[in-house]
Amino acid sequence: MTLENNRSSLVYPDSIEIETSSKSSIMNFLKKIKKNKGALIGSMILLFFILTSALAPVIAPYPVNEMNFEDSLQGPSTEHWLGTDEFGRDIWTRMLYGGRVSLLMGLFAVTLSGTIGVTLGVIAGYYRRLDIYIMQFNDILMTFPSLLMAIAIVAVLGVGLTNAMIAVAISVVPSFVRVVRGSVLSIRETEYVEASRAIGVKNWKIIIKHILPNVASPIIILATLEFGSSILSAASLSFLGLGEQPPNPEWGALVYVGKSFLSQAWWMTLFPGLAIMLVVLGFNLLGDGLRDALDPRSK
Amino acid sequence: MTIELLKVENMNISFKDDESGTTSAVKDLSFYINEGETVGLVGESGCGKSVTALSLMRLIEKNSSFIEGTIELEGEDINLFSEKKMRSIRGNKISMIFQEPMTSLNPVHKIGKQIGEVLHLHALANKINCKEKTIEILKKVGIPRAESIVDEYPHQLSGGMRQRIMIAMAMACNPKLLIADEPTTALDVTIQAQILDLMKMLQEEYNTAILLITHDLGVISEMADRVIVMYYGQIVEEADVRTLFKNPKHPYTIGLLNSVPNIDSENEGRLIPIEGNVPNLGMIKSGCPFRSRCQHAYVKCHEKNPPLFKRDSQFVRCWLYEEEGVQA
């Protein structure tokens, strides 16, 4: 039913507002996003976490690393909304700061892996001679579970936040390569690419002007979904003690510390865990929504 | 005085196979196109028409195919050109229109930008006068409200309009040779006629030669000066359009003409199809490739592939004409 509604509302604006096509296509896109409840909820969740993390120094009620042993292991109260940890630090404050690390890790991992993955995918898909080498290497990488590979990479590079980010990024690269290569393969065989070759356009120009814009939507969708799973991997690494090091907060690390006090202080694990879950859920909802909105069949 | 624009000699195209070496797609193809002439290239699906067209622009991938023979454009062999020189020829001296107008324009770019790209590439326009020139070209191909169409996307236009845009792109640099690969197959009949008229008009204005590839004999009789009939990767008959339609010689050509509806047909409007299909490439090792579908096939047809026999200005590749013709 909602699908039907979407379709009919898509057809009309296009045919009526022909003159303002470029503006209306953005408006159309926003309209589609608005119609999709999942995407709307997802983006609201993300907006909440992005805003609170960005404003952490302003809205945090306590200094992030200040210990206060009198208040240690207190449950949620009006003074400490989400309780305190074993050193009496405010969990809410630490989560605000931890969110900055987690979100930045996700952003960095997706940017790095996206850049590498798209480049390799385009090369494999467009210049078929290198295809077999890139894809076989990619397949080898894909045989490792991504978390296991991230752990292995951290083991090689050493423990620390930057290395954890790099490890997560590398473990995400294969899925970018695969998706981009597949899309490029289908786009390079289209007649408009052949036609642009037939008017004498150079290869790199064909890639930038004709192929990349047409594979943009799968890249955007994948980036959104991978954003969520990167945050999860980063949190897992921190949980294992391989990411951000104490006393600096990170959601995964907070869960890790809270684990030791699970029987006395449930709030120490619950709230950071909930934050991870909500952010990943937000990204997945947004990714699904984007997939529907950017689907060329619904144009 | 006719000037020879393009001359293809003994062209062989074969593709690398996974198992057994190579598969030959085009065999020993020789033909020429004069300036301002329209040459029709006819044949069933899979007979090598499109491969021939692509090879004229050197758009066949090199690492999976072999091309032999010479392709001379104004006396120069394009197989010897560097990739850079070839790019300056594509879209400039030789350009191409494709079969499927719905997919030959990039959906993410505006019409004006796509036509402007050709002009930029071959330095016929700069940033300032690009839009102006684009509109001028669009008007020439009969696009209404050209000023606003340059800012529209391909999905907002109909198939006929898009094919006009493709023609506009192809003709933007006044090419010497226009290769039209089934330009009207995907369009309905009334639009077909308009597109053909447009191509004729532009041809007269710019003295462009057209290589018209199609399986529609109606289009050929309308447009072409000379016709080449291909079967299984080789030329089976070549003649000027009148001779070919009045006096077809090769059994395959006769079969093709019989399968076109004709108002005065004695056969009560029934069509006579050619039995069977084009054999798969590489299947026939010796003899005439058409023999399995030919009513006149005899022993010799199984033994040896006939050469082209010349009779007046008509060329036929069939043993039936061995006596009356001269081997070309």
CATH topology of chain B: Rossmann fold
Strand segment count of chain B: 13
| Quaternary assembly | heterodimer
Q: How much is the radius of gyration of chain A in Å?
A: 23 Å
Q: Average pLDDT of chain A, to the nearest integer?
A: 86
Query: How many helical stretches of chain A?
Result: 12
The CATH C-level class name of the domain at 103-294 in chain A? Mainly Alpha
**Which percent bin holds the helix content of chain A?**
over 70%
Q: What characterizes the major β-sheet of chain B?
A: 9 strands, mixed
CATH architecture classification name of the domain at 103-294 in chain A:
Orthogonal Bundle
Proportion in β-strands of chain A: under 5%
Query: What's the CATH architecture of chain B?
Result: 3-Layer(aba) Sandwich
Layout of strands and helices, then pairs:
The complex is a heterodimer of chains A (299) and B (328).
Chain A (H helix, E strand, L loop, with lengths): L1 H15 L4 H15 L1 H18 L1 H4 L31 H36 L1 H16 L2 H12 L3 H28 L2 H8 L4 H37 L11 H9 L7 H28 L5
Chain B lengths: L3 E13 L5 E13 L3 E5 L6 H8 L8 E9 L2 E2 L5 H7 L4 E4 L13 H11 L8 H11 L5 H4 L9 H13 L5 E5 L7 H18 L2 E6 L2 H7 L2 E6 L2 E7 H6 L4 H8 L40 H5 L5 E3 L2 E3 L9 E2 L1
Parallel strand pairs in B: 3-8, 3-9, 6-7, 7-8
Antiparallel strand pairs in B: 1-2, 1-4, 4-5, 9-10, 10-12, 11-12, 11-13
